[in-house]
Amino acid sequence: MSATMILSNLAVGPLLLAFAILFKVFPPKKINALYGYRTPRSMKSQESWNAANQYANDLMMWVAIITIIFQIGLHFLFPRAVAILTSCGIMTALLVGSLFVVENFLKRNFDENGVRKSGQ
After folding, report:
1. pLDDT tens per residue across span 12-60
2. Does 33 or 10 have the greater pLDDT score?
3. Nearest-CA neighbor of 47 among 34, 32, 59, 30?
4. Is 16 in contact with 60 (CB distance < 8 Å)?
5. What pLDDT, in 10s, does the model give residues 72-85?
6. What are the angstrom distances between the C-alpha of 6 and each of 82, 92, 116, 119?
7. CB atoms < 10 A from the CB of 44, how many?
8. Long-range contact set of residues 111-114: C-beta below 8 Å, sequence gap at least 24
């Protein structure tokens, strides 16, 4: 396995962290179809859009940090191919899982029209 493949795999976590920081500094201001956390539930209202994007971005930062830790640790503990496949699998599972977490957050805090539930 080439050094380029290893370095490109190890760059995925930091790249994800860079995107999370970029989205934190430049969050999507208005509901749009190009940039931000875009699901039907998050796009119901501006308030749900803002909350979803902030929450999803915080999760993305944690996913990136966990991915970086696993990438480094796995490369010391396992053969390269196993480390690469496992770290990519972990990152994918965490990103997909975060979709369910954000959608659950929106469901708990906003009604079906994107209006914040009272007391939230």
Report:
1. 889 999 999 999 999 999 999 898 999 999 999 999 999 999 999 999 9
2. 33
3. 30
4. yes
5. 888 888 888 888 88
6. 11, 18, 45, 49
7. 19
8. 112/44, 113/44, 113/45, 114/41, 114/43, 114/44, 114/45, 114/47, 114/48, 114/49
